Amino acid sequence: MDSTSKPTFDPKEHQHLRYNPLRDSWVLVSAHRMKRPWKGQVEKPPEDNTPRHDPNNPLCPGSVRANGEVNPEYDSTFMFDNDFPALQPDAPDPGSDHHPLFQSKAARGVCKVMCFHPWSDITLPLMQPAEIRKVIDKWADLIVELGAEYTWVQIFENKGAMMGCSNPHPHCQVWASNFLPNEAALAERCQRDFLQKHGEPLLVQYARMEAQAQERVVVENEHWLVVVPYWATWPFQTLLLPRRHVFRLPDLTAQERDSLASIMKRLLTKYDNLFEVSFPYSMGWHGAPTGSHLQEDMSHWQLHAHYYPPLLRSATIRKFMVGYEMLANEQRDLTPEQVCFLLNNYKKRHILVFAIGFTLLHLPHLLH
């Protein structure tokens, strides 16, 4: 190459921007940054000595919670009202504000906690598919129950102390609100605009194209597809999509629910195997809004789940969204294609962990 010619673009070597159509935003991809040595914070690896039952853990069967209530001796899923809810159904209206810089409005809702299993030393990837299916059925029931009244029902799981989980017990939270939260409102607008412009739901088209390309597919089966999205922000972020056009969790058939239990177990097992650790993440479901929206045309919506794990180089080195990411633009240090390769080749873990930590981009025979 002479001094006047331009280098050929290589996504693994040259920074570039990728568009996220679900958020109408851009992410900066800078894979060459993985060459730098790490001298930042190192987390403690998660402890693996969680007792099966701890009477002092408020999520265990038979334990006393903060409000004095005693949990039943449950043997499957268990639901209760959050003892410290961020949303309450009877909060007073703050009144109307007329100045554009000082606006407020009423926020009402309910917050619930749902335990997946009576044992504290188990997580979703360690549960049997039939047990995961019960979790899925309960999620669907909650969308029907709470969605009859509330505009948005957010199901989410924070797994691991790194993600702020204060109780080592398999569980999720469900917050239902009378308003459309920011992320939901953004997904609503972007999916509606895409359908109007292109004549097909955004995520229906995207799932079909990813299934055809196979470049970022982590796991798949007859009814579901998991990809590292082209626009991923978090290092090992994944997107779980149905192959069929589905608005909400209750719309899933029995076969699709069984298939979902299977693919969730496979995905989360891959996560755990990558660094041989119980992989931390925040995950949540996004489906069409509920409440008054149940009577509206929601054909632009496609049900999907986001998984946002924080780990970057190892079980003890995480990605921090600070500085430039907070003040300017989201940024990632690995291409989604590299991440997909790592997740699909975790059996070469000892080579891959070394590669991630030190010379990832110097191993073209692993990451091509």
TrEMBL record:
Residue ranges of every copy of the Galactose-1-phosphate uridyl transferase C-terminal domain listed in the record: 189-351
Record keywords, A-Z: Carbohydrate metabolism, Galactose metabolism, Metal-binding, Nucleotidyltransferase, Transferase, Zinc
Known cofactor(s): Zn(2+)
Listed EC numbers: 2.7.7.12
GO cellular component labels: cytoplasm
Biased composition regions of type Basic and acidic residues, renumbered to the chain: 41-55
Similarity section: Belongs to the galactose-1-phosphate uridylyltransferase type 1 family.
UniProt-recorded name of the protein: Galactose-1-phosphate uridylyltransferase
